[in-house]
């Protein structure tokens, strides 16, 4: 079911999003070679709880962690581990959901550990720009396909591919709501966007094929060809003035 949010509800989600954005800002200076992905998970959990919020991912369909920490060829849902030690040049995606007084926010951000290779730098730049090109299309009267088309055409023009199996979604009052928000598709097709909708836009962009394979844990997806994968995600609201980013960083 799609729920249209009031101005008060959107404000509450923005307060939740500010907590989440602030954590991502802190991660910029925290992530470095020698840390484990479990260190990062514990850092995020501590910050969320210190803000009086709830780590919404913990317990979701049996998931045990506050974050998904996906490194290099892992597309999404990577398990934090005290055995996974980050090294210079790694590309890590940190994804988490904050529940603050019942208001949800969801944001994944990508970080390079230490020094970025030219390939990683280009991949990150393209993926982040693709996110904002999608957000530009997220306005009342447009359709879901307008978002995906803007992302797909740009990403593919840069020689990369867009993951198909994992997509954006509605959010609030629970973590995953309708509508589905693919990062590929045809302009002018799909559900029409309405004022009050709150959704995530979260393109996952690969250096090689868009196809994925699953690890034995049943959660972690990685690129089928071993190529790198990058992701950037915001929670947004559709307003009369266009898209309002609820997880905007400084």
How would you characterize this protein structure?
The protein is α+β, with helices and mostly antiparallel strands. The protein has a single domain (7-245), classed as Creatine Amidinohydrolase (Alpha-Beta Complex). 28% of the residues lie in helices and 26% in strands. It is built from four helices and 15 strands. It has helices at 7-30, 37-50, 118-136, 144-157; strands spanning 54-55, 67-71, 74-76, 91-100, 103-112, 161-162, 168-170, 177-181, 198-201, 204-206, 212-214, 221-223, 229-231, 234-239, 242-245. The strands form five sheets. Strands 1, 2, 4 and 5 form a four-stranded antiparallel beta sheet that branches. Strands 3-12-11 form a three-stranded antiparallel beta sheet, with no helix packed on it. A hairpin with a 6-residue loop joins β11 (212-214) and β12. It is globular and about 45 Å long. The two termini are 33 Å apart. The model has no long low-confidence stretch (mean pLDDT 98).
């Amino acid at each position: 079911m799609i729920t249209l949010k009031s101005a008060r509800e959107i404000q509450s989600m923005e307060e939740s999003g500010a907590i989440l954005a602030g954590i991502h800002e802190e991660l910029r200076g925290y992530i470095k070679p020698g840390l484990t992905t479990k260190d990062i998970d514990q850092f995020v959990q501590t910050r969320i709880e210190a803000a009086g919020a709830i780590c919404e991912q913990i317990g979701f369909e049996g998931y045990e962690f506050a974050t998904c920490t996906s490194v290099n060829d892992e597309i999404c849902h990577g398990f934090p581990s005290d055995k996974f030690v980050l090294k210079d040049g790694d590309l890590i995606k940190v994804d988490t959901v904050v529940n603050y007084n019942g208001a949800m926010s969801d944001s994944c951000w990508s970080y390079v550990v230490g020094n970025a290779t030219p390939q990683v730098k280009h991949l990150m730049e393209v993926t982040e720009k693709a996110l904002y090109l999608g957000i530009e299309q997220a306005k009342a009267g447009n359709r879901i396909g307008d978002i995906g088309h803007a992302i797909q055409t740009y990403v593919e023009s840069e020689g990369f591919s867009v993951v198909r199996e994992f997509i954006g979604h509605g959010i609030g009052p629970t973590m995953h709501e309708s509508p589905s928000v693919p990062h590929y598709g045809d302009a002018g097709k799909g559900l029409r966007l309405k004022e009050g909708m709150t959704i995530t836009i979260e393109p996952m962009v690969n250096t090689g094929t868009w196809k994925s394979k699953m690890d034995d844990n049943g959660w972690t997806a990685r690129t089928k060809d071993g190529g790198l994968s990058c992701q950037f995600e915001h929670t947004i609201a559709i307003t009369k003035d266009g898209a309002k980013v609820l997880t905007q960083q400084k």
